[in-house]
Specification:
single chain, 745 residues, 13-stranded mixed β-sheet, 30 strands, 22% strand
């Protein structure tokens, strides 16, 4: 006798039930079928461990009557519900079940997206040698010839993100397609994933016919301006729609509801292993050899005089070239695109239609009107113009929204009701480091990027300093010196840019927190604002300053450049180009280490000074008679002085460095504290007004204001300490920890 139990019309040996949510219950339909024509009645028996379920009846007819089963709570572990079908007292069939909460539709696959990249204009039709994406002969343009500037929402401007039906899939590129792969849900303390058990699994997932990544920069000055412009890594999905076959579809009501990236980050080691991603250099060499085999199989005439030959040569060039065949090396893919990721979150709440049919999850979805999308785009390569996506679609429930609003500082996958798109940092330094030519234009861009990088370190360091609640401690003095050094580093870079004939931009590049460091340096590091504690020291402050090879710790991942490597590239470019520096408009502030840079030797020494103070050298933690910043922070974290014993070996085993008493400032959330007046005295606004004035005075100092404006900026920064500390004494209403400055301008 071959008896099988079906749940919601799907035959399976394992399945799931949906636990109640927001007062709604979700019974599943059970039936029993036979593969050999057996008929008769079957007894249903259920056993559970720590979870409660209800059967509507214990007797059903094979191929006839049905029963329902209802979970009244979540499972504590997977498979803690066992349903058996008995015939004549013998078990003839069994179904293992798990009661999950917050069911999510999981989808994954490969997508195609054809668009121009920096430093090409965003609506460049085919890509130029300036960018790192490009069209081949015979392929359609990235954008239509007319109406390719998005002057209003909803336009069809090309650059489409395709989950299916790629328009120009290149040879040796894997197929494109995104599908529902699983249902996942919450059990006690864990997530359970099911690759069968619901008819929605296997459905095609697609975006709208005109959905595109809407950075819209850099813009061609000859074009009308687009209606929106976003920094790299910050862009939304414009003209957004989501479709699960013909079973679910919807869009976003407001522009702020659209899925939007939270910034660039590198894939973690576990993600690289999970997705089976090989190192970029290995991928490029394997693909290059494959294309070389195709190219060398062509006749000399076909190599030069056919589109196939020219296209193969172009692809080989972008993968490293082949000098023996006179194929020059061309600009390679963006490292961050291949080994990095962007996570988009948004709300599906417009024109939602659901055809549940026999899908339990979609029947669950029918009870709600708003859904949360989370999609990770990653592993994109310019030879393919394709990448991978892994995401979920879930109900946006009252419980989830409440949790997000009560504590926005927590990492919540679903956007809150008041979600605001936060500026992400660009990948400018990554792009600069990958450019083959470091000319004067490169140098100016690099110096501006260095200014933004140094500026971004000062607010978290100041929060750590201001949170120390006892004076005269060694920790306080160590951090105070570091803050002064960082101000000096920024000032030196401002002098260098001014010496090259350009005033620095400061106000418009003010950093937002939390977020990665500007430029793509260490994109796996998320910098946030907090009071001084060991987690903040270890995870943020020490990580910012971490050398390429710490003398007392393990080396970093080489996928992205360290700050030291970036500065070394800048120094090398200055030596190579030998530009003349003018001291006109440069400023001197001895108290924070800002000196005039009269020539290239001065500039190189300044860069060596910045590197040494931050990281030390490859053989010593000491630079110019002082510990480098990384090791100063390390002494506070480890609670011990760094000592050298034996020579060349450094360890935190010296005299005690007591950890100071601190004010418990919590992590400041993205977009700042929801309560904009936590003490009822306007202190938060007063702080941010001072901060804005500091930035304005710094910018005007190097523009035309001179030393007077620089002195005013330093004085205003000192005044910021009092309101910052007052905020750090105000407890948050609903969560642990206190308020603090959020540096919003």
């Amino acid at each position: 006798m071959a008896i099988q139990i079906q749940i919601n019309g799907v035959t399976a040996t394992e399945g799931f039930l949906l636990a109640p949510l927001d007062g709604n219950e979700f019974p599943a339909v059970l039936s029993v079928v036979s593969s050999d024509g057996t008929t008769g009645m079957v007894q249903l028996r259920v056993s559970t461990i720590g979870v409660t379920v209800q059967l509507s009846t214990t007797e059903v007819e094979i191929g006839g009557t049905i029963a329902t089963i209802l979970a009244t709570s979540r499972s504590k572990r997977r498979g803690d519900i066992i349903l058996q079908a008995e015939v004549g007292g013998l078990v003839a069939g069994q179904l293992i079940l798990t009661a999950i909460g917050n069911p999510r539709v999981r989808f994954a696959g490969r997508f195609e997206s054809r668009f121009a990249t920096n430093s090409d204009f965003y609506n460049e039709p085919r890509g130029t040698p300036k960018g790192w994406t490009w069209a081949l002969e015979g392929e359609p343009d990235f954008v239509p010839e007319q109406n390719n500037v998005p002057t209003q929402p909803g336009m069809a401007v090309g650059r489409v993100v395709r989950f299916h039906d790629p328009v120009a899939l290149r040879t040796h590129v894997p197929p494109v397609g995104v599908f529902v792969t699983a249902i996942e849900g919450d059990i006690e303390g864990d997530i359970a994933v099911f690759t069968s058990g619901d008819s929605i699994i296997g459905e095609k997932v697609s975006l709208g016919p005109n959905t595109y990544f809407a950075s819209n920069r850099p813009a061609n000055p000859a074009d009308p301006p687009p209606f929106e412009v976003w920094d790299d890594g910050e862009e939304p999905l414009e003209a957004f729609e989501l479709h699960l076959g013909s079973r679910f579809s919807g869009g976003s009501q407001k522009l702020t509801d659209r899925p939007q990236s939270s910034g660039f980050a590198s894939l973690t080691g576990s993600e690289i292993q999970e997705y089976g991603i090989i190192p970029l250099q290995v991928f490029a060499e394997q693909r290059r050899k494959t294309l070389l085999a195709d190219y060398t199989a062509l006749s000399d005439d076909d190599r030069k005089n056919t589109a196939m030959g020219r296209n193969l040569a172009k692809r080989i060039g972008h993968l490293g070239g082949a000098p023996e065949l006179n194929i020059p090396r061309l600009k390679s893919t963006l490292t961050a695109g291949y080994s990095g990721k962007e996570i988009y979150t948004g709300i599906v709440n417009d024109a939602v239609t659901i055809n549940a049919d026999d899908s339990a999850v979609l029947a669950f979805f029918e009870q709600f009107s708003e859904f949360a999308l989370r999609a990770k785009f990653f592993n994109f390569h310019s030879d393919e113009l394709c990448g991978r996506v892994d995401g979920t679609l879930a109900v946006r429930t009252v419980e989830q929204v409440t949790r997000a609003v009560l504590d926005p500082a927590d990492e919540v996958a679903l956007p809150s009701l008041n979600a605001v798109a936060q500026p992400a940092r660009s990948m400018k330094i990554i792009e600069l480091m990958q450019m083959p030519t470091h000319d004067m234009a490169w140098i100016r861009e690099a110096v501006q990027a260095a200014i933004e990088l140094e500026l971004s370190t000062i607010p978290p360091y100041l929060c750590a300093l201001w949170s120390i609640d006892e004076s005269g401690t060694e920790a306080e003095e160590l951090i105070r010196r570091i803050v002064q050094d960082e101000m000096g580093h920024m000032g030196l870079m401002c002098n260098l840019l001014k010496g090259l004939g350009e005033p620095p931009k400061i106000v418009t590049v003010a950093p937002r927190y939390p977020g990665p460091l500007p430029g793509g340096v260490r994109p796996e590091l998320i910098v946030y604002l907090s009071g001084l504690n060991r987690d903040f020291l270890h995870d943020v402050l020490m990580e910012i300053e971490k050398p390429e090879e710490p003398l007392a710790l393990l080396a970093l991942d080489e996928a992205f450049p360290s700050i030291g490597k970036f500065y070394q590239a800048l120094s090398d470019a200055l030596v190579s180009e030998q530009p003349t520096l003018s001291t006109t408009g440069q400023l001197k502030k001895t108290s924070i280490g800002v000196d005039l840079l009269a020539n290239i030797d001065d500039a190189v020494k300044a860069i060596d000074h910045i590197k040494g103070q931050g990281e030390g050298t490859t053989t010593s933690a000491i630079f110019d008679g002082e510990l480098a910043h990384y090791y100063k922070f390390g002494e506070i974290y480890h609670g011990r002085k760094l000592v050298e014993s034996p020579p060349g070996t450094f360890n935190f085993t010296g005299a005690e460095v007591p950890f100071p008493k601190t004010l418990p400032m919590a992590k400041a959330p993205a977009g700042g504290w929801p309560n904009r007046d936590p003490d009822g005295k306007g202190t938060l606004k007063a702080f941010n007004d001072l901060y804005a004035s500091v930035l304005q005075k710094l910018e005007s100092a190097w523009a035309a204001g001179g030393a007077a404006d620089l002195s005013k900026a330093v004085g205003l920064m000192l005044q910021m300490a009092d309101p910052a500390r007052e905020l750090m004494k105000v407890p948050r209403e609903t969560c642990d920890g206190n308020y603090g400055p959020d540096f919003i301008v």
